[in-house]
Amino acid sequence: MILVLLLDFNNLRKVDTSKILMELFKDIKNIDDPGKQPSYIPELTHVDPNKFGVHISTIENFHSGVGDFQERFSIQSIAKVLALSLAYRMQGEKIWERIGVEPSGTPFNSLVQLEADKGIPRNPFINAGALVISDLLISSLKNPKEEFLAFVRDAANNPTIDYSSKIAESEKTAGFRNVALCNFIKALGNIQNDPNEVLDFYFHLCSIEMSCEELSQLFLFLANNGMKLNEEKEVLTANQCKRVNALMQTCGFYDESGEFAFKVGLPGKSGVGGGIIAVHPNQYAIAVWSPKLNPKGNSFKGMQFLEAFTTKTHSSIF
Hints:
Blueprint: E1 4-7, E2 12-15, H1 17-29, E3 53-58, E4 63-67, E5 73-74, H2 79-91, H3 127-140, H4 144-156, H5 165-174, H6 176-187, H7 195-207, E6 209-210, H8 212-218, H9 238-251, H10 257-263, E7 268-270, E8 275-280, E9 284-289, H11 300-313
Antiparallel strand pairs: 1-2, 3-4, 3-9, 5-6, 7-8, 8-9
Helix pairs in contact: 1-11, 2-3, 2-9, 3-6, 3-7, 5-7, 6-7
């Protein structure tokens, strides 16, 4: 039996995490899933809708997974956290001159707030915000796609992580709304580079493929005050780490962020590939993957699993 310490802010108690993962996995796997895969990215419709995986990694070097936790999938908008982290590390507080930190209350691909907000996206996790972050990185890096991928690989200690050319091309051929967003922001003066270059970078960062195991290990830096686990190497400062976690808590699930905070109680980020990453500062990162999405664009089973997990283990931050 493997034991790991989890803190519920009242009691430090031991739980058999592997057993709980397995029990909850079996319960959630068999529930009726009314979700649908996103048809607006054609390549994602080819993924087996019955895939389901979970993996947890802790700062105490405990690791446990169940189901399809070692199979790679398109992480999509989860990559926005990594793009933000690199831009924040490079440019510091200046990035908040071009992007907000408020929940949008609208779908992830909405245009409705941009004109009223003069081209400043509400936060870096909606598509408009991620396009501005992409523009910032293009301005800051000599070889943006190569250097961003190198940053992700280094943070993950995994040189095999890569873009999916099929997914990137699929997004490019069907991403008309993102094209509209990027050009609209350009017209409002908050995109500095060629929109085609910005879109190409954005489509590639969303196409990165990782497994639940790889994701949970990578995101431990956000559970470890910005430091890579087992290394004295800083990915973000402790203050930057705090702010990225705060943004995940308030903005990581688009117009369902309040619901996730209410039911799960962890900073997290979803992607339309069906993945969710959630972080408990100073304790663990947990990744879930199930491709069918609820009407808000978040994994139906992933949301169900994480709510059950933090309830069972008393390990939300609240």
